[in-house]
Prior knowledge:
Elements: H1 2-11, H2 14-27, H3 34-62, H4 73-79, H5 82-99, H6 103-127, H7 132-155, H8 167-192, H9 194-202, H10 204-243, H11 245-281, H12 290-304, H13 306-309, H14 311-315, H15 319-344, H16 346-368, H17 378-396, H18 403-425, H19 427-446
Amino acid sequence: MTLGFLVSFGKLGLQKSVVRFYAEVEAGTRPGNKVEFFSTVLFSMVAVGAAIAAASAAIVLLLPRAWFGHSGAQLVIALAAPLVLFRVVDSAMLNLVNAEQKSGFYSLFTAVRKYVGLAIVLLVLFLVARNLYGFFFGTMLAEGLALAYIVHHYARQHLFDLRRFSRPLFMAMLTFGLPLLGSELSYQLLAMGGRYIINYQLGPQQLGAYSAAYNFSEYLQNILTLSFAQAIVPMYLRQWEKDGREKTEAFLQLSLRYYLALALPILAGMAAIGPDLLRLLASDNYVVSASLIVFIVGGMLVAGGTPIFSAGIYIEKLTKVVLYSVLASAVLNMALTAWLTRPLGIEGAALATLASYLLYSAATTYYGRRTVHVRMPWADLAKFTALALIMYGAVTHITLNPLALRIVVQIAAGALLYGALLLLTDRPIRELASKGIARLRLKRAQRP
């Protein structure tokens, strides 16, 4: 978690500026070209990331050794400082990919990086050093190789030139991004801060169960909805610059509808199989309730929808509103967690996080409504909820052994049932599916 805060600080909010300013450069509403923009992003993030990495290593080495429980922990943490630089620059590169709306490349790169990186870390641990040094060295090697690849990917396109670094563009991006630095640190506190309270009030065993459920839910949520959230921001920013308010609002309204159609069955499905799936993948030590999974996944899905709800904030660059909204949500999360954890257990902490994400979404929607007004489609929400509940009821009645077989059948049956119900009851989804099938047939017909 400490490394996460250092990385967030090292970005200075600049990574948040990439998508917003790229849309302006591409549309011609801001002076400069693609080479100038890419060069400014890369070299500014390298400089800032290197400075923060060096400063963090120096500070760690100057701290009293007694503050570190493990005898070699101080040196290990200092030697791991390059991870700050790697992750700062990596964030900038991925935001450039996102700004160009290369969602396929983004998903493929992040997936390959994750699994190849895990393989490299395991190889180093088993073949070189089975200790903290081996873990951090393997992590730095894996992340360094991934970063080198993505930088080389753009360098081959001749998009980096130190002479094209633009100080005015850098200052504009910094002005936009600095308030978002505070919001990112607050967002980390919102997502992770409650764990300190859980550990203090309930002990490490309950913290372990909560962390396992949270990390498991976050992993699945990233697979299922992260690509949607990553793609939506550059798309609506580009549409705003080219087509204006009316078409942007229509696009956001349609996007929200599709997001609800995707998010609600995920929530229902996780409520049905989440506890058993976690027990299967981890162990019987991590037995959690369905309500805990619902609260955690519900909060994550609300957070996943914030790029839609907060569109007006980012279009108008109201970054201070983002800062105040996230900070207020983080404070609410800590207060509710402290209040609810003792009577309700870890379910109370998850409920506190869900309430905090709802506050953040409501605040950004309210303050961004003058720019673009995105209405909640209540009728669609009710319909998708009903379909998800039907799926939930059907899935929970599947009783097979062993557990692994039951979960596989539940996932397949739930996906097929919800998809069929959606096609039967929703005309826009049927039309979208028909267009997709027609495109596939056309591509097959065009093949030699």
